[in-house]
């Protein structure tokens, strides 16, 4: 039996990834390891309550002993590492939390994987090397910093993070690289553009604007709203990670993106129009310090080497996403009221 340890599986992308993994690989044992910060919502995974090949462990990735116990108990074959503090605004007010979780937490996972996975250092540089174990590190295009009006981030672009969040992710990327180069740990890194889709915590741009629109509240837009982001549907991201997991080469970085560049203002206007609301709801607010102007991903390597391209057209994906939030008002309400946090206690605390 193959056991995949998914860190941060109660978060937005992690929970979508677990659903993808179960649909694609029904025989895998999935171990979801998440400490359930405010961003972790186990209700996203209700459908797994009766799945005997799914396990949840409420564990902090910085807890070396607990991670060691999990590797020993579950005989882990692969790690897909999502767990992180992920909100740029929060990283500006609480940088230390981002450094300990995103950097030291990653190091704990790398160390533990090293101890448990017998390495074969002579094969480290062979592109066809296929050990039975694998560590996929999920990262972000934000590690590359900001682009001008033209050009794209490739895997060879310099690392130049501008926020404590992106600096902590860039640091974890470099650690992952170092564990490959120094110890031959079989790692792969993905760097993806902005994701959208169901189950995203409503502090992030798209669900935040949808929620405000649905509640007829002002829509706060940073600065002039002309910051450009490249948007990818979360299910395309999950499929890309799965492809990298199965077919990617060790020690490599893969950029994942959707070729859907939109300014933040354009995006807000799309949402306003979908609800038939007035643009008068838009409220420009003081810009975020160090706010990157433009991100855009060149995902040619994913297409050429691994045959992956996104399935979603942005117009279709955003319409479906808006529809999902409209049809699940209770999901947002349970987050806004904090009720989602009681689910773990009711389901797991008696075990
Ligand atoms: P999220 O904030 O929705 O989820 C993060 C999850 O990690 C939560 O469930 C949280 O409880 C858990 N977590 C946090 N600290 C932990 C700790 N110390 N121990 C165990 N679990 C912990 O984030 P997301 O948007 O799903 O992003 C997942 C990953 O993908 C992150 O590494 C992020 O950097 C990366 N990424 C995100 C995007 C995006 O657009 N959201 C784009 C590219 C890359």
From TrEMBL:
The keyword Nucleotide-binding does not apply. Coiled coil: none annotated. InterPro entries: dTDP_Gluc_deHydtase (IPR005888), NAD(P)-bd_dom (IPR016040), NAD(P)-bd_dom_sf (IPR036291). It holds the Pfam family GDP_Man_Dehyd. It catalyses: dTDP-alpha-D-glucose = dTDP-4-dehydro-6-deoxy-alpha-D-glucose + H2O. Its EC number is 4.2.1.46. Its cofactor is NAD(+). Keywords: Lyase, NAD. SUPFAM superfamilies: NAD(P)-binding Rossmann-fold domains. The keyword 4Fe-4S does not apply. Residues 5-321 form the NAD(P)-binding domain. Signal peptide: none annotated. GO terms for molecular function: dTDP-glucose 4,6-dehydratase activity. Belongs to the NAD(P)-dependent epimerase/dehydratase family. dTDP-glucose dehydratase subfamily. This is dTDP-glucose 4,6-dehydratase.
